[in-house]
């Protein structure tokens, strides 16, 4: 298929995938962890409402931004996939959408038209099968480049002759090397070497050439343009990575504080609190000073949670 997709989400996958990406931010994961702790009555010292509101607000704003960006990717994909191309089908030229072009199709390009897929140039309106292309979308260069059909196919300017073309191309697998191509055309019991000079790559524009015909060799995600673009990934800047590291260190500091305070709580309960059980009884689930210290550790993690957000505003 010659259909391309640069978008990351669809209606079904947006929520789970976007949340998964957002929780790769350590701060978001920290606040989710904190929210879970606040839902446990035995250790919760603050209302879960104080955590869930800012967390949901941050997640929602980021999700709206990501959804907007992906909407424009979908829009761009649809625009490109629905471009029109002339495809030689059963001896006649037909208008087809780019997404419907397939490997092995012969298509006709006209001057100032974008190349729909990676093509083996078969013939052109210029002498000796020459054509001129602009590769700005591929490599940023605006100067014209010359491509040439191999002599044995350069005479196939007639649609009837092209419809009878039954050559077979054996070539390298899809790759992202824009300036290299290696292959062989087998036709009429002969073989002809192919190079990058015989190829028109997707994203190029035909210039100063009335028309040309090409055989689709690579389509869609297999084209060199798409091989270079790669998959759309969750953007993570150096600041994001630094923030993740800082939050981990701060969380480690918070855990150390919680451990120290929990040990102090356990010692106090064992040495002093145990004597006043009549007036200061332990909760129902607590049956020892050690377990009281264990529960108080998580309570201190909740109480001291502001250490992380305050530190984020780190300048």
Describe this entry's structure for a reader:
The protein is an alpha+beta fold and 315 residues long. It is built from ten helices and twelve strands. It starts with 13 loop residues before the first helix and ends with a helix. The model has no long low-confidence stretch (mean pLDDT 87). The strands form three sheets. A six-stranded antiparallel sheet has the order 2-1-3-12-4-10. Strands 6-5-11 form a three-stranded antiparallel sheet. A three-stranded antiparallel sheet has the order 7-8-9, with no helix packed on it. A hairpin with a 2-residue loop joins strand 8 (183-187) and strand 9 (190-194). Helix content is 41%, strand content 21%. Helix 8 packs antiparallel against helix 9 (289-303). Keywords: Membrane, Transmembrane, Transmembrane helix. Residues 1-52 form the P-type ATPase N-terminal domain. It comes from Chelydra serpentina. InterPro entries: ATPase_P-typ_TM_dom_sf (IPR023298), ATPase_P-typ_transduc_dom_A_sf (IPR008250), P-type_ATPase_N (IPR032631).
């Amino acid at each position: 298929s010659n259909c391309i997709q640069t978008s990351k989400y669809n209606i079904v996958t947006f929520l789970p995938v976007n949340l998964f990406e957002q929780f790769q931010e350590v701060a978001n994961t920290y606040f989710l962890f904190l929210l879970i702790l606040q839902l446990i009555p035995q250790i919760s010292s603050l209302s879960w409402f104080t955590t869930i509101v800012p967390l949901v607000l941050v997640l929602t704003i980021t999700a709206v931004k990501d959804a907007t960006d992906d909407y424009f990717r979908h829009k761009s994909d649809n625009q490109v996939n629905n471009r029109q191309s002339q495809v030689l089908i059963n001896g006649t030229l037909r208008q087809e959408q780019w997404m419907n072009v397939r490997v092995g199709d012969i298509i006709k390009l006209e001057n100032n038209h974008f190349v729909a897929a990676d093509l083996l140039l078969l013939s052109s309106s210029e002498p000796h099968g020459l054509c001129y292309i602009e590769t700005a979308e591929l490599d940023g260069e605006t100067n014209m480049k010359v491509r040439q059909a191999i002599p044995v196919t350069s005479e196939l300017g007639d649609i009837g002759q092209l419809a009878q073309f039954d050559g077979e191309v054996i070539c390298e697998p899809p790759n992202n090397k824009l300036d290299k191509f290696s292959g062989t055309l087998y036709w009429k019991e002969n073989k002809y070497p192919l190079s990058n000079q015989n190829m028109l790559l997707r994203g190029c524009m035909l210039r100063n050439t009335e028309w040309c015909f090409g055989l689709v060799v690579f389509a869609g995600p297999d084209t060199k343009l798409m091989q270079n673009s790669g998959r759309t990934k969750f953007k993570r800047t150096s600041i994001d990575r630094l923030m993740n590291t800082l939050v981990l260190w701060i969380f480690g500091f918070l855990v150390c504080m919680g451990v120290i305070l929990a040990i102090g709580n356990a010692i106090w309960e064992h040495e002093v609190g145990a004597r006043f059980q009549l007036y200061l009884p332990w909760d129902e689930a607590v049956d020892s000073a050690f377990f009281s210290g264990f529960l108080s550790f998580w309570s201190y993690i909740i109480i001291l949670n502001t250490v992380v957000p305050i530190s984020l505003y780190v300048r």
